[in-house]
Amino acid sequence: MDTEERRRGILDTARREGSVGVNALADLFKVAKETVRRDLHVLEEHGLVRRTHGGAYPVESAGFETTLAVRTTRNVPQKSRIAAAAADLLGDAETVFVDEGFTPQLVAEALPQDRPLTVVTASLAVATSLAAVEKTSVLLLGGRVRGSTMATVDHWASRMLSEFVIDLAYVGANGISREYGLTTPDPAVAEVKAQALRSSRRRIFAGIHSKFGAVSFCRFAGVGDFEAIVTDAGLPSAEAQRYSLLGPQVIRV
């Protein structure tokens, strides 16, 4: 196996398993740990993985995206804390957009149920979770359903969304960076997210710390477009301060 084949194998393993460790990769490919570290360094330079202490995890891109089913199994306690803190920022909003994805779904479930709310969403999971809430009206955007995320996209969804004026949007992303803003792998998803921002008076990003510094294929917003960013304490305080200098309040929970 040559170097390129090994690096493709490492990337395939990371995408299949969700993360990889240096020791396990060295055993799997019968090479030295230092060789694996060099491979991971190259893959990170190419924007394909993010390195961690002792390993790496894959970056979502035009060629790779984790499914909603996988996301529901990872970092659930952190995502639940983020969702609760984001829901606390609702204020006097009466109409809310809730994005696709597992963390936004948790935000939707954390919204108060004792007051009238209208929730607009492209996510079938969000719509299903709120459908039985007595004081919540749910508007599900029409369009093509993406099987990986169980959410609607394309011009039907964005056109319907463009007809609303929404008080507050809870938005997720596959990556957020100070240089490139918020990104996602699929142009159709990016357009729905961008329209949600255009239709909303207030915007809040909710996402786990591993999203920060990651860059995917399609940019749909800048960091400064948001009033608040809610994440977990895994984001270093110094890095949170750098993001806050671009405009939003950064809340770590």
From TrEMBL:
Protein name: Lactose phosphotransferase system repressor
Keyword field contains Heme: no
Any coiled-coil regions, as ranges: none
PROSITE patterns, A to Z: HTH_DEOR_2
Stretches assigned to the HTH deoR-type domain: 3-58
DNA-binding as UniProt keyword: yes
UniProt GO molecular function: DNA binding
UniProt function note: Repressor of the lactose catabolism operon. Galactose-6-phosphate is the inducer.
InterPro entries in UniProt: Carb_Metab_HTH_regulators, DeoR-like_C, DeoR_HTH, NagB/RpiA_transferase-like, WH-like_DNA-bd_sf, WH_DNA-bd_sf
Gene3D superfamilies for this protein: Winged helix-like DNA-binding domain superfamily/Winged helix DNA-binding domain
Species the sequence originates in: Streptomyces pakalii
